[in-house]
Amino acid sequence: MASNKIDEQDLLASLYEPDEDDENDPSAMTLVEHLEELRWRIFKSLIAIAVGSIVAFIFREQIVHFLTLPLPKSADVLTHGKPIVIGIMEGFTVFLMISIAAGFILALPVVLYQIWAFIAPGLLEKEKKYAVPFIVVGVVLFAAGVSLGYFVLQYPVQWLVSFAADSFTELITAGSYFTFIAFFMLAFGIVFEIPLVLTFMAQVDLISSQTLTKKRAGAHIGMWIASTFLTPGADIYSPIFLGVAMSCLFELSIIFIKIIKK
After folding, report:
1. 65: Cβ contacts below 8 Å, ≥ 6 apart
2. What is the pLDDT averaged over residues 42-55?
3. Buried b or exposed e, range 127-156, using 16+ CB within 10 angstroms
4. Which residues contact 19 (CB under 8 A, 6 or more apart)?
5. Residue 138 in contact with residue 196, Cβ under 8 Å?
6. How far apart are CA 254 and CA 135, in angstroms?
């Protein structure tokens, strides 16, 4: 009985004692230090988003005008094609929501850097050199996705507005319209990060180009199914654009992984 108690104490001591390699490694961190590091990275990202939101709020009128361009002039005969607000606070709330969304886009380089800085201590030296390309490519891909989403936006908006035009007079509220386009464009922006995510996973040996090639058929089917759910509205153009983009990005990811691994 005594020997069992001694064995349990030795086991607990081995679990809580740091390895000798970790003690000699200056980059080794405890769980509490990791959580503290994560807290500060999130805090810095939120500060960057707040600053970007303030800048966007200053130019809120120009941003709203730009975002309402895809809305048909015949959408609302009572307001000459402009979305309406139905509450005393809705105008301010909509401007605030748009400013935060635009602020996130402006702060994206900082957010990506904070993500990279958090995971960098666990990477090898040869992997840390991809910090700048990670940030630059991430921003470019997200911007390309949002731009394509804005271009495609006119199709679901026109379809939804004209669908019941013969039976109803559609009063489009600002809150519903800008929420719709925010999710729509965000879906395109996130989808365009596929090459970045897959290439990073390949760099840390979680996947390989051979694995992606073997799973190619199932991946394409899954992406085309996902494109129908990620694009609100029942028009046929939005899922086609998104599906083609996802398939092309998947194939480009395989090429990028092969080049980088070589």
Report:
1. none
2. 93
3. eeebeeebbebbbebbeebbebbbebbbbb
4. none
5. yes
6. 20
User: Hey, how many other C-beta atoms are within 10 angstroms of the C-beta on 235?
Assistant: 18
Q: What single DSSP character describes residue 193?
A: T
pLDDT tens digits, one per residue of 198-226: 887 887 778 888 888 888 888 889 888 88
Whole-angstrom distance, CA of residue 145 vs CA of residue 226? 16
Burial class (CB in 10 A: 0-12, 13-18, 19+), 254: buried
Cα three-residue angle 112-117-121, rounded to 5 degrees: 145
pTM of the model: 0.71
> What are the distances in angstroms from CA 26 to CA 20, 126, 129, 255?
12, 18, 19, 37
Q: How many residues does the chain have?
A: 262
